Amino acid sequence: RKKIAVMTSGGDSPGMNAAVRAVVRTGIHYGCDVFAVYEGYEGLLKGGEYLRQMKWEDVRGWLSEGGTLIGTARCMEFRERWGRKQAAGNLISQGIDALIVCGGDGSLTGADLFRSEWPSLVEELVKDGKFTQEQVEPYQNLTIVGLVGSIDNDMAGTDSTIGAYSALERIIEMVDYIDETAKSHSRAFVVEVMGRHCGWLALMAGIATGADYIFIPERAVPHGKWQEELKEVCQRHRNKGRRNNTVIVAEGALDDQLNPVTADDVKNVLLDLGLDTKVTILGHVQRGGTAVAHDRWLATLQGVDSVKAVLEMTPQTPSPLIGILENKIIRMPLVESVKMTKSVATAIENKDFDKAISLRDTEFIE
Ligand code: ADP
């Protein structure tokens, strides 16, 4: 019987439970034993009770649960070769040689590295006397399949990541609340939203709530000049009769000299314009709560396909990432997707903002 493990890693996102549920049930449907790795890579290093076989009913009701019920963690030891060797030993002890990882680009990079090192790790485990050659014979290759769980929607090559629409929904709900009180007092609000290197949440929230101005890392504002432009835009909207102003700032927002633009920077400019201005940093409410319909079906369809991918892969198949493109679930080489994602960050570092935007596909409005 094929043994598959599923784990969640890196930052949690709504819909991760739906993904785990789909993997568990699809795996069982195809006659596999499915294990959940608790606490991300930390659980892989600890082994034993952190690797639990899941039954059909163990994931009942998980569609409507936020966060990740099997836990997640950041694990420094998995970045070290000795840590990955220990993880390999724990998987072999349970007879597992396929791993479905739901996480961000960091987690998926780690997973692909783990796969490429696997044969040499196994060899070393035999040399160390942990296993005999006979014992490791059936486990010469590790299969890795990636699912992208991230509220930031920051993975290149896929239209949306599991959790992004839920976070977006939460943000616009909060901004709607803020707008009501802002209008009552004729105030301006600066709302900081998540998305380290990716402005998707800020941009989409800004469009969905009709914000006056949006700051994102990919479309860096002109150094020393944005202040006047911001004032001009907000004043223009006031002149048209608007009773409030809303400015959305991505936490990674920059000017074109790569200086951070913070919510407080923006607030000071609006105060200078004479507006009664408050800052709201939404923080972790953006991660919490149940997954919206989009994330539930995305996680379910992708979870199903991740198990199919495991069963169809050969040792020569590059590790796939399950994505969605124009409403179709697709597979693409995980490494390429991660590389493209990193090149957006590099383009920003090089102040090549046009390139950063073009690498974000058509989702971004120029
Ligand atoms: P995310 O997956 O959300 O991008 P991180 O970048 O924090 O989050 O990665 C989560 C975990 O994945 C890390 O704590 C570490 O255990 C593992 N990881 C990340 N990058 C690597 C890497 N280059 N090599 C090995 N493991 C990695």
Automatic annotation (TrEMBL):
- Residues of the active site: D152
Where is it localised? Cytoplasm; Mitochondrion outer membrane
The residues listed in the UniProt record as binding substrate, with positions renumbered to this chain, are S150, I151, D152, R187, M194, G195, R196, E251, K278, H284, V285, Q286, R287
Q: Which residues form the Phosphofructokinase domain?
A: 3-309
Name the residues that bind ATP.
Answer: G11, R74, C75, G104, D105, G106, S107
Any idea which positions bind Mg(2+)? Answer: D105
Task: Region N-terminal catalytic PFK domain 1: list its residue ranges.
Answer: 1-366
Q: What is the role of this chain? A: Catalyzes the phosphorylation of D-fructose 6-phosphate to fructose 1,6-bisphosphate by ATP, the first committing step of glycolysis.
How does this chain assemble? Heterooctamer of 4 alpha and 4 beta chains.
Q: What protein family does this chain belong to?
A: Belongs to the phosphofructokinase type A (PFKA) family. ATP-dependent PFK group I subfamily. Eukaryotic two domain clade "E" sub-subfamily.
Q: What is this protein called?
A: ATP-dependent 6-phosphofructokinase
What are the leading ranks of the lineage?
Answer: Eukaryota, Fungi, Dikarya, Ascomycota, Saccharomycotina
Which residues of the whole protein are included? 202 to 567 of 984
